[in-house]
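haha ok so turns out i had the wrong file open the whole time. this is the CORRECT one, sorry everyone. sequence first:
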Amino acid sequence: MSAVMVSNTEMETVFVRLLDEGTDVMRPVQAERIRPEIFRLFEPADYDPEYEKWEFVPGSLVRCEIRHINNEVIPVVVEMVEPV
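then structure:
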């Protein structure tokens, strides 16, 4: 999992499932780590809710689990959580 620092905030890439795609599709999304498994999803500049329907929308506080997909280990968003 890659991470970059942006204004004292550690940004990481997590994967959000896209809905209504006809097949399983996940989109890489930048997120702020809040706690070990908890992240806040950021809205990318190219986000268009008319074009992509995310399972969890930008700004959501979510929990990730590590999943093994296509011989890769990636953090996948699995549920929304209540604010801390």
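The two ends are 23 Å apart (CA to CA).
again sry for the mixup
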